[in-house]
Amino acid sequence: MSSLQSLNLVCLSFIVVFSVMSVESRLFPTKQLDQAIIKIITVGNNGDYYTIQSAIDSVPSWSNKWTRIHVKGGSYREKVVIPHDKPYIVLEGDGCMNTTILWNDCDDIEEPTIKVLAQNFVAKSISFKNTIYEENPDHPKGVAALIAGDMSAFYDCRFYGMQDTLYDKEGRHYFKSCYIEGATDFIFGNGRSIYEDCSINVTAGNIRAGFITAQSRSTPSELTGFVFKNCIVNGTGETFLGRPWRRYSRVMFYKSYLSEVVIREGWYAWDFAGDEGTILYAEFNCTGIGSETAGRVKWEKVVSQKDADQLADISFIDQEGWLLNHP
Known about the structure:
By secondary structure, the protein is mostly beta strands.
């Protein structure tokens, strides 16, 4: 594929994204909700519940009113599921360095520490950790969080793991000022997500090379992709920015700081070596030693400022105003 054809493909992809999103906003307008928290539940010593799951279970099914679950400082060793019938939950800790949910399932990406299936979920100031690698280094694969509920947002949260840390499975998601740690494919899935002002900490150490992303967009008509906006990438060892889990994988690093951990090639074709034309990987106005593009793979896409700004705009995930409806 020629460079001109590649650029046309990128531009066409952006046009499809925004035209279809406009249709979505007309067909499925966001219901204007009362942002007030109707009910507050506390978890921890002298709280309403001692486990997070029991607090979640107490929320009425299919409620359209927000419930705030305040999790007091401490480490909570339990698996947590926000089921489909529990939308409008705010899960808030006493600070991401003080409140942590931990579990140690491994080798199954569908068994994370926390699984979010419901729409309109918000997490604030809390950490999610899979401890399997710390406990048994022979099992690096352990998911800290699986996010499959549409219109989910995370603020000042931390995600810890080694491989497959954050399964951004599906739906529209917003991550703001979060910390995400891992070595291999530690942000993966087919979400339509913006990561803004986040810290991406690579813990590749002495392994050959890590991979930050493994995005799994599988058809050109899908509106999915990962955008890293004003993020910081640092850590130990070496890493690629990403590799494609599916043929039409789409990732962009936008105005982000890339430290020396990012290797000169930048991206890895994985199972699509020699057939990279459908992969949409791009960087725009990034800084840092790792942002030098002289040695980048030839199939990395070059995007215009207009297209980059559009993809990095909040409208990529939210044209209806669902983020404004979150408390």
